[in-house]
UniProtKB/TrEMBL annotation:
The protein's name: Methyltransferase
Gene3D superfamilies to which the protein is assigned, alphabetical: Vaccinia Virus protein VP39
Statement: the UniProt record of this protein carries the keyword Nucleotide-binding: no
GO biological process: methylation
GO MF terms, alphabetically ordered: methyltransferase activity
Transmembrane segments: none
Keywords: Methyltransferase, Transferase
Amino acid sequence: MVENSVPAIFSEPRRIARVRRAAVRQHVRGAPARFLLDDMAEDMVERLRFVRHLPRRALIIGDTAPTLLAFLEQSGSDVTLALDADPVLPQLSPGFDFIGVLGQLDAVNDLPGALIRLRAALVPNGYVIASFIGGQSVPVLRDAMLAAEPDRPAARIHPLVDARAAPSLLQRAGWKDPVVDTHTLLVRYARFSQLIDDLRDQGLGSALARPAPALSRAALARAQAAFAAHAGADGKVSERFEIVTLTGRRSLAGT
């Protein structure tokens, strides 16, 4: 009998390293980008308020999330923080009545398995919210990367989850009352390098198992020119970020 194996599209060490580098950048840079992380955290607070879910024991994965952390602590929650999901979840015993995941799931080889582990770490009727950037994100950056290497473009942006596939993933993982939502943020950039810095600040660099070599100077110049070609009358480029949010519960039976 042949066992099914999970394709190794992403490198776990590289994925974890990008999160840790982002945490360092958040502390050492004068004004690090946080708009995606903060949007996810604020959205989680709104959802918790809407469903009137005030957890006693909560886990936040992916970022310190000041807005979410403050809300949970003011609500009397005992909060655990973790930078990365994969080293943490296998070690957890069930007991959380809320888990919030900011980012992280965009570069997981076994996404169904991660969703199952999240559910398993909840108490019965526990609530999970997981947000990450989706497949409709960074179209301008994708165009720029193709223009940089027109003859033989290398894989530089890893594949992202299509929101249309998410409902079936949640059902496979056994989530109760699963919901998938998406919304879009448009961000204006004067320079190509600003976009790259923003991605790195928020732990969104490539985590591909087979990373491409660095762009040559000529290729980088082509990427910058292709990026600038999207500029509006004010000289700035609008880049799109799709945020996918998954919500659900563990059943009262605890399964």
